[in-house]
Amino acid sequence: MKNETLSLLGGLSRQQFLDEYWQKKPLLVRQAIPDAQGLSSPDELAGLSLENEIESRILIGAEKGKQSQWQLKHGPFNDETYHSLPENEWTLLVQAINFYLPQFTPLISQFDFLPKWRIDDVMASYAALGGSVGPHFDNYDVFLIQGHGKRHWKVGQLCDERSSLQEHPDLRLLKNFDTQEEWILEPGDMLYLPPRIAHFGVAIDSCITYSLGFTSPSTSQVAEYFCDNVLERDLSSKRYADPSLTAQGHSGVLDRSAIQQFKQMLIEELDKPEVLSEWLARMISEPKYSDYNPAENDPLSDDAFLSFLDNDEPLYRDEASRFIFTENEDNTIALYINGSQYSHPDCPELVSTLCDELILKPSSLRPLLHNKEIISWLNQLYCSGYLYFDLEL
Ligand code: SIN
Ligand code: CO
Fold first, then answer.
1. Relative to the CA of 201, which ligand 1 atom is closest?
2. Is the CB of 142 under 6 A from ligand 1?
3. Is the CB–ligand 1 distance for residue 209 below 6 Å?
């Protein structure tokens, strides 16, 4: 499995890709996803951009040397928005389309060689001729998958927070772009870009690009969760103490040994593996939109639920919910869904399958289906909307 080569990765094995390209350098793969053209359509994306709860933007403009002018609008949009757009040089961006369009689930499953928790979302961009989001860099890894039409991509220099940006209140467009490589992507082609590589894609006919983006929490975000966890555990009675104090030359100094002790107080709180994995797992399993809760399904009896599985109906995971598990030091495992820990039957294979797979095949659950506790627990997840069957009930 480790050495198996994948057409998704242009004939590289998963490990070769990870060793040579992941977080290191761009990779172009022709015909990585041959059926990408059928994934969605301009009309479907425009339809999503009318919805209140879906994050969408329209960017009008093009890079024309010093004259470049960009206008950004935030959705939800309406028919009037689309009537007022110019014929060319605009782009519609729709975020997290995989939450609303289940046809993206099998696509995401192809990237199983990467940790699922690193996946942020699939963003779609529909561009009219000449449309672009401008020269920029992102702080995350992205696989750019060409759906409809063709896009001319240039990749440039490695950027960082000191890279000069154009003056714009809302956009982070690069002032300078040093083209290193360029390609025309056609339907089915894919370009992998590591974080902070300058890139610039221009539609050479009206086209759709899907960006499978990966999240990487910053130190500030992790520190925020750490602080919240410390506050939740109320450690106010644990205090600085100095029983070995030595006489000081300066009474006005905050000396190095005091600083060292403060550091030690923080390290002690980090050095508790179970506590650390608990708040990290809650952080990592937070849904993309923090106030998100899946819509509940109409309740089913455990028998009715089981009969669907007996009939070979796959169980789908709610696409906007995040499932992860952690392995404790005592070899037990803990399950987290959407930022909360969930109790679960003592069945590690069930919990790991639930977290690894976006679609649960009844055949993989079959050995467990005689267990009433497991059925009832899965049914609870179903009723709460974390799992669903793809049929009209
Ligand atoms: C696009 O597809 O237009 C933008 C995607 C990106 O640059 O990350
Ligand atoms: Co980008």
1. 3
2. yes
3. yes
Pocket test for ligand 1, best of 121, 139, 144, 155 (most atoms within 8 A of CB): 144
> What distances in angstroms separate CA 328 from CA 272, 325, 343, 355, 360, one per listed residue?
12, 10, 14, 16, 24
Q: Residue 392 above 80 pLDDT?
A: no
pLDDT in tens, 337-377: 999 999 999 999 999 999 999 999 999 898 998 999 999 99
Q: Write out the DSSP string of 270-317.
A: H--HHHHHHHHHHHHTS-SSTT--PPPPPP--HHHHHHHHHTTPPEEE
274, pLDDT greater than 70: yes
Mean pLDDT of 36-50: 98
Condensed to tens digits (0 to 9), the pLDDT of residues 120-150 reads 999 999 999 999 999 999 999 999 999 999 9
Q: Which of 382, 70, 95 is nearest to 212 (CA)?
A: 95
Q: Which among 162, 167, 115 is positioned nearest to 141, based on CA atoms?
A: 115
Domains and CATH numbers, the chain: 5-214 (2.60.120.650), 219-241+255-271 (no CATH), 302-389 (3.40.366.30)
For residue 393, pLDDT beyond 60: no
- 56-62 and 90-94 as β-strands: parallel, antiparallel, unpaired? antiparallel
Structure tokens at 198: 């300058």
Q: Does residue 201's CB lie within 6 angstroms of at least one atom of ligand 1?
A: yes
- With a 6 Å cutoff on the Cβ, whether 125 touches ligand 1 is yes
Q: What is the DSSP string of 304-351?
A: HHHHHHHTTPPEEEPTT--EEEEE-TTS-EEEEETTEEE---S-HHHH
Mean per-residue pLDDT over the chain, rounded: 95
